[in-house]
Every structure is written in C-alpha cells, then in structure tokens.
Write a structure and sequence with these properties.
single chain; alpha+beta; ATP12-like; ATP12-like fold; 2 domains; 4-stranded antiparallel sheet; two-stranded antiparallel ribbon; 11 helices; 8% strand; mitochondrion inner membrane; chaperone
Length: 247
C-alpha cells in the first residue's frame, strides 16, 4: 500500500480475548480483513508496536515486515491449512539454492563447494537425512525419506511460526539455509550472503550498480531478520517463560 500520513500519537499494547492487541491512541489496530489485530505473545506485540511507533510523519507500510507477517497469519488470505503450509515449505528442497551447482567458471564452482558444502553437511547431520547437490539443471534427487523428515520437523511448529518459516524460505530461496538460520546455526548476514553467493561473485568480478546493490542487500537482510524474529517470537512458550520468572 502507498504511504499514509501518520494519524496517531501514541502506540500501546493490551491483552484481549484473542491475545495481545495493538492500540493506536484509543483505536484497536485491525487487519486488512477488518479483524482485531491480536498476536499470541507479548514479545511479538511489543515488536509490532515498535514498528508502528517508529514511523515518522508518514507510515511506510513496506518497512513493517512484522506487521505484514501478523496480518498474513491472522487473515490467511490463501486459506491454507497447516499441512499445506508445510508441504509448500518442503517443496523448496527440490529447487534449493545451495543444491544447484555450476561447473564453470571453476572459481565459482570452488566457491560454492567451500561455502555451501558445510551448511548441507550440517543439515544432513542435524536432521539425519541425505540431501546432496547436483550440477544438473534438474537438481539433486532428494529422497522421499528426507522430505518426510522435514515434514515431521516442521509439524512441530504452530501455524504462526510456519507462516514465518515460509516467508524466510521465500527470501533465501532455500529451506536448508532457512532452517540453519532459525536453528541459530548461522546468522542473518551469513544466510543472506550464502543465498546470494553467485551474485556476490559476479559483483566482485564485474562491479556493482551504484546504490542498487546495497539497497537490495539491506532489504533482503531486513526481511530475513524480521521473518526469523517472527518465527522465534511465535514459537516461545509463554507458560514456560512465566514459570521461569516465578522460579
């Protein structure tokens, strides 16, 4: 949506029947489908409220990635259920960025091997699966057992977290990098760099378009970081957190 003049002074959160709500002055924030904007954790509500409070004279909706993810989780515009979300995420394995390798030029092939092999090896060990890589345009032949293992793993996440996981996968074009990031095995900066390995190689060789490269890189980092934070905040157990505070 286009930018809009800021129409509120204060942002606050409150607890309602559906979860934690965001208040713009005395009005409750609503989703695009006019539902009350209520999120499952207080930490997520604070993060979203911070996005709204950080807007200056105009509201730049395209900078509010957490708000967008919450709207998607609440409205579910594609009307998908949990298993459909999981299958869509696992399908990315068939075209995973780190599984597609080149043979030429040798320098890029070597770079892919050095940078991508370790994250593939980590995933194979972490989830006890076979993934591999291929220089064929058809990509590697991912075993059905590997896909089912990832289906089972993703099923442990709730619907909100799954929306975030799919968002991160879409940014990185890689299920493997996304799981490494969400599992805290790699940082956002590292995940983004690995997802853009060929592009970064070409930039180092031929140079970059002034400002455009840095803008794209910062935008991708921002979206990836927001998606990862969203997954973590939606996966927290408030029961465990309160118990720890009591203890």
């Amino acid at each position: 949506p286009p930018e809009r003049k800021r129409f509120y002074q204060n942002v606050s959160i409150s607890q309602g029947e559906g979860g934690y709500e965001i208040n713009l002055d005395h009005r409750k924030l609503k989703t695009p489908q006019a539902k009350v904007f209520a999120v499952p954790s207080e930490a997520l509500a604070i993060a979203v409220a911070t996005e709204w409070d950080s807007q200056k004279d105009t509201i730049k909706f395209y900078t509010m990635h957490l708000t967008t993810l919450c709207n998607t989780a609440l409205d579910n515009p594609t009307q998908r259920n949990k298993m459909q979300l999981i299958r869509a995420a696992v399908k990315f394995l068939e075209t995973d960025t780190v599984c597609y390798r080149v043979e030429e030029p040798p320098a890029l092939a070597e770079l892919q091997k050095n940078e991508w092999d370790p994250i593939v090896a980590w995933a194979e060990k972490r989830y006890n699966v076979a993934i591999g890589s291929s220089t064929s345009i058809l990509g590697p032949n991912i075993p059905a057992s590997t896909k089912e293992t990832f289906v089972s793993h993703l099923a442990s996440y709730n619907m909100w977290a799954l929306q975030g996981i799919e968002y991160v996968i879409t940014q990185l074009k890689s299920l493997i990098l996304s799981m490494g990031l969400i599992d805290r095995h790699i940082t956002v900066e590292k995940a983004v760099l690995l997802s853009r390995l060929e592009e970064e190689y070409q930039i180092r060789r031929w140079g970059s378009v002034e400002w455009a490269h840095d803008y794209d890189l910062c935008e991708l980092r921002a979206r990836t970081a927001a998606g990862t934070l969203f997954v973590h905040l939606c996966s927290e157990s408030s029961t465990v957190k309160h118990k720890l505070l009591q203890d």
